[in-house]
Amino acid sequence: MDTYVYFFEGRLYINLTNKCCNDCTFCLRNNMDGIEGNNLWLKKEGSKEEIVELIKKNLNFTDAVFCGYGESTYRVDDMVYLAQFLHSVGKKVRLDTNGLGSLINGYDIVPKLKGNIDYVSVSLNEADADGYDKVSRSVFGKEAFGAMLDFTRECIKAGIKAKMTVVDVIPKEDIEKCRAICENLGAEFRVRELIK
Predict the structure, then answer these.
(1) Residues 6 or more apart from 63 whose CB is under 8 A from it?
(2) 32-52 per-position pLDDT tens digit
């Protein structure tokens, strides 16, 4: 059975899709089927209505996170629908993203997120377009880095809290450059440990 929702560290996680425009060198998908016993590979994507019904079964959480084995912004309209439902039952909503949703959809998606997503966590991954391209291996090539920064900037302008993350597989000097990028944008910064 496909896993559309799962709990991790007290939060509800929503696994909308397996589609992703990146193939990050450190991605869990490359060597694991899921997390905490939940297989996150989908045979088919769940409908927004199915996912609402699953969420209703256990509302014992404060925060919900769009994060699975793909990039949730491929389904931006369904994501917004679900975020609105989550807000209606008093939950905070976070999006973990590669920040390329506007490139994926061909238009600026931030106005759709405003008022629906409380917090974004964006994978910064590296300090410049060349480094990002090597680590993220995006179908959008070197255009991806600037688009990800633009997305983060627009989220902050729209009043959506933003954090940017790097995984501790990149050189320390690059981590410090990434920290400076975040400070310049007004985003929080977090260094994540590689999950093995």
Answers:
(1) 10, 11, 12, 91, 92, 93, 94
(2) 887 878 889 999 999 999 999
